[in-house]
């Protein structure tokens, strides 16, 4: 599956279903350039996962919304709930492990914890 270019306009509909991995990157970022082929290879191997890329130079509002201060930053969603966010390029094996972990989450527990976290203090 080709990667999707994520923008403020298509963000909400993109992350609402299934497993979604978002790569925040910039053209001038050397670690981003090294991570791109790893991310692209995983996108070809996992047809059941949506792989999205955010150009932080073009989509500054979206990067700010996520609080991205270091790139690359990888964010994972499952069924519309953010379940992972971490700066830094991952090696292929670590990315594969992350994808497996996100796919195998107990979503009943995740939804419960997410709902509790959304309650005002």
From TrEMBL:
Query: Keywords in UniProt for this one?
Result: Disulfide bond, Electron transport, Redox-active center, Transport
Question: What domain of life?
Answer: Bacteria
Which SUPFAM superfamilies does its entry note? Thioredoxin-like
List each copy of the Thioredoxin domain by range.
Answer: 1-104
Family classification: Belongs to the thioredoxin family.
Official protein name in the record: Thioredoxin
């Amino acid at each position: 599956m080709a990667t999707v270019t994520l923008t403020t306009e298509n963000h909400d509909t993109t992350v609402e279903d299934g497993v979604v991995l978002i790569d925040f990157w910039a053209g001038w970022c050397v670690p981003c350039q090294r991570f791109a082929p790893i991310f692209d290879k995983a996108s070809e191997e996992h047809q059941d996962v949506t792989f999205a890329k955010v150009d932080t130079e073009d989509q500054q509002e979206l990067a700010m919304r996520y609080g991205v201060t270091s790139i690359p930053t990888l964010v994972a969603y499952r069924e519309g709930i953010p379940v992972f966010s971490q700066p830094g390029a991952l090696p292929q094996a670590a990315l594969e492990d992350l994808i497996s972990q996100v796919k195998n989450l107990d979503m009943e527990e995740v939804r419960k914890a997410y709902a509790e976290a959304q309650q005002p203090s």
